[in-house]
Amino acid sequence: MNNEHPMQFHEAVRGILAGDFSRLARLFDGCPCPIIQWHEAGLFADEPQALDEAYTNACFLGRTEVAEYFLAHGINPSGGQATGLNAFHWAANRGQLETVKLLIEHHAPLEVRNSYGGTVLGCAVWSAVHETKPNHLPIIEALLEAGANAREAWYPSGDARVDEILRCYGAAAL
Predict the structure, then answer these.
(1) Which residues lie below 8 Å from residue 118, measured CB to CB, with a gap of 6+?
(2) What is the pTM of this model?
(3) Is residue 94 part of a domain?
């Protein structure tokens, strides 16, 4: 490893801990990507919170292969929550269907609450209505099929398609 890597690593850790996820996307690209190389080199050994947030960042970005790498290396499936949302919330919010499916496969908790009080399903429903992405409806269905509590979603949501899915899984008006 050259002398440049530790400086880049420490700068990246500051950005990761600050929740600057979009700006750091380049660190999650390539094979292997810099984040994985740094993990394999042991640079995260003294940075457990940064490691959790790096995993959350991978889920935010939909870098499913990076998230899968971290899960295979024992990271908590919920990841970090320094931004107020954990890895699962961010994947659902950003419309990252394949990452959501991976988290479901790894039994990431469905009912954990974010800093706004919402569960992963609640976050997905809010996002489907307010920050619509193409995969929000399949994500909502996947979460409900995995056992997410439909009563944790804001219903009626204001979106007829979302409400129809929630109704099928037992949502009731708040």
Answers:
(1) 89, 126, 152
(2) 0.94
(3) no
161 assigned to some structural domain: yes
Which residue range is the domain that position 75 belongs to? 1-82
Q: Coil, strand, or helix at residue 39?
A: helix
Q: What is the pLDDT of residues 89-127, one digit of tens each?
A: 999 999 999 999 999 999 999 999 999 999 999 999 999
The per-residue DSSP string of 102-141 comes to HHHHTT--SS---TTS--HHHHHHHHHHHS--TTHHHHHH
The sign of the dihedral angle between the CA atoms of 119, 125, 128, 134 is: positive
- How far apart are alpha carbons 64 and 72 in whole angstroms? 12
CB 174 within 8 A of CB 154: yes
Output the CA–CA distances (angstroms, integers) from residue 27 to 9, 55, 80, 143, 154, in the order listed. 10, 12, 18, 29, 35
